[in-house]
Amino acid sequence: MVGCAHQKSRVQKLTNCHKDRARRRVERGGAFHASRSGGFTLIELLVVLTIISLLASIAVPIYQNSVTKAKEAALRDDLYQMREAMDKYYADNGEYPAELANLVEKKYIRTVPVDPFTRSADTWVTAAAEEETGIYDVHSGSTDAALDGSSYAEW
To answer: FRET label pair with 112: which of 29, 41, 85, 130, CA 20 to 30 Å apart?
Structure first.
């Protein structure tokens, strides 16, 4: 037997050889070290991918909902600012502006804002004043429905 230092009896030789082999296995990193490589199994990869896809399926709708809420807040603010500018224009000039560009020309607003849902500054729907000339109200040109169920065109 190679590696056995003791030559007493056959039983002692076998016992000592097994002890030497066990000691060498421990020094190399364990009895099962050579039988397993350092990679992941297919099952482990599938479990990880399943967990990632579950988390993504929860996170994506929440993210999209928060983007829509931010666009709605921007639309509300844009409508408020343009309506305030129209009221100030009326208070200063005694008439409503003929178009939204007049608010920019007279410096009531810096630019006509971009509608966050249509992504255009040209899609605003204006409402004419009943007794006066000009426009007294503005709405979004979007035909989409808001998160609360109302139409953006009605805001």
So the answer is: 130
Cβ neighbourhood burial of 16 (10 Å; 0-12, 13-18, 19+): middle
Residues 75, 17: Cα–Cα separation, whole Å: 83
Q: How many residues does the chain have?
A: 155
* pLDDT value of position 51: 96
Domain boundaries, the chain: 1-34, 70-154
Please report which helix (H) or strand (E) contains residue 53, including its range: helix 42-93
Sequence-distant (6+) residues with CB within 8 A of 143 are 151, 152, 153
Tell me the per-residue pLDDT of 29-67, one tens digit each, with 9 for 90 and over: 655 544 556 889 999 999 999 999 999 999 998 898 999
Confidence (pTM): 0.65
* pLDDT tier, 6 (very low <50, low <70, confident <90, very high otherwise): very low
Would you say 111 and 121 are in contact if contact means Cβ atoms under 8 Å apart?
yes
pLDDT band at 80 (very low <50, low <70, confident <90, very high): very high
Output Rg (C-alpha) for the chain, integer angstroms.
39
DSSP sequence for 68-93: HHHHHHHHHHHHHHHHHHHHHHHHHH
Neighbours of 74 (CB within 10 A): 15
